[in-house]
Amino acid sequence: MITAVTSPDVVLELRPPRPAVVLSLISALPAVVVVPMVLDGFSARFATVLLLLYVGALAFHAVTVLTRVRAHADGSLEVRNRLSTRRLHRTDVARVTAARQGGLGSAWRLELLLADGSTLPLIATQTPQSRPQRHLEERAAELRRWLGDAANR
């Protein structure tokens, strides 16, 4: 989702789509039922493993919701993925592409092809396979507009 600008120097901000945020918040609700059930009905070792898996899943959802891409007026691009944040300059980006992420629950997301030949996935733009491709292309167009001719080659 393209969100409202949060500070004067931010000219474009991409965040995870609203359905992904809602789904992540809903995933926290079973804790009210799961935690007491696990603590009461299973052996201590099994309950510990289940709780660790649940906490890991919640942490994964939390850091996914916090991902974002911010384009600043000074020509810098801040990419916050799950475990890292990178700050690039407009000239560091050669192209913006849509790529399919493989694996369970395949999804599409934007990736930056950098001038040095490496790629940088934009986790904040990840959309489920069922989501229209048009949505992702709109986000790519916004980013390409900000980048200017360098990303349209």
Write out key terms for the chains shown:
7 strands; alpha+beta; 37% helix; single chain; disordered N terminus; PH-domain like; 2 domains; four-stranded antiparallel beta sheet; three-stranded antiparallel beta sheet; 153 residues
What can you see in these coordinates?
This protein has 153 residues and is of the alpha+beta class. The protein folds into 2 domains: 10-16 and 67-152, PH-domain like (Roll); 22-63. Helices cover 37% and strands 31% of the residues. The protein contains 4 helices and 7 strands, in the order E-H-H-H-E-E-E-E-E-E-H. A 4-stranded antiparallel beta sheet has the order 1-2-3-4, covered by helices on one side. Strands 5-6-7 form a 3-stranded antiparallel beta sheet, covered by helices on one side. A hairpin with a 4-residue loop joins strand 6 and strand 7. Helix 1 (18-26) packs antiparallel against helix 3 (44-65) and helix 2 packs antiparallel against helix 3 (44-65). The longest helix has 22 residues, at 44-65. The radius of gyration is 18 Å and the shape is elongated. Residues 68-139 form the Low molecular weight protein antigen 6 PH domain. Pfam families: bPH_6. The chain crosses the membrane at residues 20-39, 46-66. This is PH domain-containing protein. InterPro entries: CFP-6_PH.
